[in-house]
Specification:
Layout (H helix, E strand, L loop, with lengths): L6 E3 L4 H10 L4 E4 L5 H6 L7 E4 L8 E3 L3 E5 L4 H6 L1 H6 L1 H8 L5 H6 L2 H7 L6 H7 L3 E6 L2 E6 H4 E3 L2 E2 L6 E8 L5 E8 L9 E8 L4 E8 L6 E7 L8 H13 L11 H24 L1
Parallel strand pairs: 1-3, 2-3
Antiparallel strand pairs: 4-5, 5-10, 6-7, 6-10, 8-9, 11-12, 12-13, 13-14
Helix pairs in contact: 10-11
Length: about 280
């Protein structure tokens, strides 16, 4: 039960929503599905005087264009799983949605934009969106700006979104060449948050390209993008290079009640190798 009194707003337009966030900047937050915000408010981890609901803004669409897929911030995991556009063009996103802990109750309530906005290091979405080179559209009374995933996630529960901005859409570019994808995560038990999450996109051709993003083990996703000409993705040298670069970028890591940073760092190299080998096996199959 939420113990603090707050005022709930249901704007009918983006203009109205932006106006509320500008009017109550620093005192207002946005709620999507509520799977993370409501428990946090109930536990008094966060307190807000104003909560802005987005259910009337029709931000739950998945639209295919010539260059990208645009996903509304209120699109639920269930809607991602039901979308033929996601199935055909964004299989990595579908893999992630299938593995969100909680089953249908969370899939129907939780939203992609909510996960990105809350920026819990242990969430499934951040690493996946970084691997897909997503861009986040942030709307305010001043207009809309686009922020690349690498610049959007700044740290644990901290993003580039300003207090008066609203995340409206996530844009993911279409692959320009054949790619294979893999998303895997490691959890202490079936119902827990992950302690390591690894997402990769492997682009075939000459040179071969690997883009890998690691989440849950660090306050913000660690992204590594490398090209491998010539011998490409044969042997172990390319794996060693990606593991070394990822570990160098992981810093001190992330600790919570499930696992401390040192344990996550110990798990991470094997998790990266397993993820990338699974992707390559799909190429060779």
């Amino acid at each position: 039960m939420i113990g603090e009194v707050f005022e709930f707003h249901r704007p009918a337009s983006l203009k109205e929503a932006a106006g509320l966030l500008r009017q109550f900047a620093g005192e207002a937050t946005v709620i999507g599905g509520g799977t993370m915000l409501v428990p946090a408010m109930s536990a008094n981890q966060v307190r807000w005087k104003h909560v802005v609901g987005l259910s009337r803004l029709h931000l739950d669409t998945v639209v295919l264009t010539d260059t990208h897929v645009r996903i509304g911030a209120m699109t639920s995991y269930a809607q991602l799983l039901a979308s033929p556009v996601v199935a055909e063009h964004l299989p990595l996103l579908r893999m992630m949605a299938e593995q969100v802990t909680g089953g249908p109750s969370i899939w129907n309530q939780g939203t992609l934009g909510g996960s990105a906005a809350f920026a819990n290091p242990a969430s499934d979405a951040p690493a996946c969106l970084c691997a897909l080179e997503a861009a986040f559209l942030l709307h305010s009374a001043d207009g809309t700006r686009s922020v690349a995933a690498g610049d959007y996630f700044l740290g644990a529960f901290h993003t580039a979104r300003r207090p008066d901005e609203l995340l409206t859409h996530i844009e993911i570019p279409l692959a320009r060449a054949p790619e294979v994808w893999r998303y895997q995560k490691y959890k202490p038990c079936a119902s827990s948050w992950p302690i390591v999450a690894v997402a990769c996109a492997v682009r075939l051709g000459e040179p071969a390209r690997v883009r890998l993003a690691v989440g849950a083990a660090t306050p913000r996703p660690v992204v590594v993008s490398r090209a491998f000409p010539g011998a490409g993705l044969h042997g172990d040298a390319w794996l060693d290079a990606i593991v070394a670069e990822t570990m160098a970028g992981a810093g001190e890591g992330w600790s919570d009640e499930l696992a401390d940073a040192s344990y996550r760092r110990a798990v991470l190299p094997a998790a990266i190798r397993r993820n990338l080998r699974a992707a390559i096996e799909e190429v060779d199959a």
